[in-house]
Amino acid sequence: MSPVNHNLEKNWQDLQSRLAEACRRAGRERSEISLLAVSKQQPVDAVRTVSGLGQAAFGENYVDQALEKITALGDLDLEWHFIGPVQSNKTRAIAEHFDWVQSIDRPKIIRRLSEQRPAARSPLNVLIQVNLDDEAQKAGCSPDEIADLADQINSCSKLVLRGLMAIPAPRHDHADQLAVFSRLRVLFDELARQHSTVDTLSAGMTDDLEAAIEAGSTMVRVGTALFGARGTMHP
Predict the structure, then answer these.
(1) Coil, strand or helix: which one is 80?
(2) Which candidate among 1, 129, 174, 193 keeps its CA 20 to 30 Å from the CA of 200?
């Protein structure tokens, strides 16, 4: 086994232990939390290696890089999530090749993804991205826009509303992290009461996944703890 593969295997095992401990502390079952491996800017062979360890769901931010991986790994049964800001000129490629979009934040993107989802594919699973801290440089809708976006998604037969996603501003204190994720959980619970398909709260990354799990996240998005620091993308 190459050093890269050996490191990935150790990272994978360490991450699984970390997730199990976070669930134990939160009084939750490990099966309640799914792991999205954030593979942006990681080479194809790293994704293949992690897939071989049992990981099936991968998250990408950049459409062109993602399409290269989706093509190169077409022999594997993988689930691809688009987690970056959605540009209007990329919606067709996203609609055609991804299984999930976690970053819905405006009506135009909803319409385009629905119109461009191929009829032969199952409906696209989508999450509404919420900008919890009103950060101007970050994508996501305001909390008071969630209900209208949800209704628009539900009017599209080629989309399925699955829940919410958020990337809060960095907080280094566990209590502060827990507080912001708890606000997100309130929004999620309200959405779930209104829409029966809602079952996914995508929250928590390498630096704050413990607080996210304690607050009720059902999916954590982890890149650094699994792949290491992002490097240069290889062909």
Answers:
(1) strand
(2) 174
Compute CA distances 219 → 31, 64, 122, 189, whole Å.
11, 25, 21, 15
Question: What is the Cα–Cα distance from 81 to 62, expressed in whole angstroms?
Answer: 11
Structure tokens at 69: 């991986």
Judge whether 185 and 201 are in contact, CB under 8 Å: yes
Q: Are 23 and 212 in contact (CB under 8 A)?
A: no
**pLDDT reported for residue 11:** 96
Q: How confident is the model at residue 5 (pLDDT cuts 50, 70, 90)?
A: low
Which of 91, 92, 39 lies closest to 70, judged by CA? 39
Give the CA distances from residue 149 to residues 65, 120, 130, 179, in Å, rounded to whole numbers and listed in that order: 28, 25, 11, 25
Q: Cβ atoms within 10 A of the Cβ of 142, count?
A: 11
CATH numeric code, 3-225:
3.20.20.10
Q: How many CB atoms lie within 10 A of CB 34?
A: 16
pLDDT of 93 strictly over 50: yes
pLDDT, tens digit, 9 for 90 and up, residues 103-133: 999 999 999 999 999 999 999 999 999 999 9
Interatomic CA distance for residues 60 and 93, integer angstroms: 13
End-to-end CA distance of the chain: 21
Asked whether residue 170 carries a pLDDT value surpassing 60, the answer given is: yes
Q: Which residues pair with 104 in a beta bridge?
A: 128
> CA 24 to CA 165: how far, in whole Å?
23
**Rounded-to-integer distance, Cα 178 and Cα 182, Å:** 6
| Whole-prediction pTM | 0.94
